[in-house]
Amino acid sequence: MKKKLSVLLICSVAIVSILLTPTLIADASRPHDRPRARFASGTWKYTPIGKDFRYGDSYTFILGDEDGTWTGTFTGTSYDVFSAVIQPSGIVYLHYGLIFFEGTVDGKEGTLIISFAPGENIGGEWSGEWEILSGTDDLENLRGHGTWWGPNKDLEYSGKIYFRQPKYDDDDD
């Protein structure tokens, strides 16, 4: 009798779990639990500070830095560093870059580190992608990504940004 009761209890728990799983999954994905993304756009104008060139096998390797001015969703200034290569075909390929932004986004102040790459310059027109890696102060929880494009030193950007929910430390240190 105990064995039948145990088997019945286990089967009942399994059936209830199977029936409730879709409800729990649907509840977990409700929009109120997810951060709301919003559209971001504006201009990013930069002025080169310096470039270091290295040469090898018909390629030119570039390490550089620049100062940037941002308007639109991101309003402020930046210091940017990058690495790129000029291929034998003349196409400039941006391997990787980092933007150290200081300013405001949606009326909130702080700093951001934004990656920008990969990118290409074909005939004087740049295009590539950007992603927010981290932030400080009021921008600590800001994340987002998008694209950038335009002629040298006068770029446009667009994408989506959102403020993720802060993680709370409930340990009593």
Description:
An eight-stranded antiparallel β-barrel has the order 1-2-3-4-5-6-7-8. The longest helix is centred in the first third of the chain and has 27 residues, at 2-28. A hairpin with a 2-residue loop joins β4 (92-105) and β5. It contains one helix and eight strands. With 173 residues, it is of the alpha+beta class. It has two domains: 2-32; 35-163, AOC barrel-like (Beta Barrel). The N and C termini lie far apart (51 Å).
Which keywords apply here?
single chain, 173 residues, alpha+beta, AOC barrel-like, 2 domains, eight-stranded antiparallel beta barrel, elongated, disordered N terminus
Quick one: how many beta strands? 8
* CATH architecture annotation name of the largest domain: Beta Barrel
> What is the SS-derived class?
alpha+beta
> Major sheet: size, sense and barrel closure?
8 strands, antiparallel, barrel
Order of helices and strands: HEEEEEEEE
Low-confidence regions: 2-31
Strand content: over 45%
* CATH topology title of the largest domain: AOC barrel-like
Strand order of the largest sheet: 1-2-3-4-5-6-7-8
How far apart are the first and last residues' alpha carbons, in Å? Answer: 51 Å
Helix content: 10-25%
Number of helices: 1
The CATH homologous superfamily of the largest domain is called SO1590-like
Average pLDDT score: 83
Shape: elongated
By oligomeric state, this entry counts as: single chain
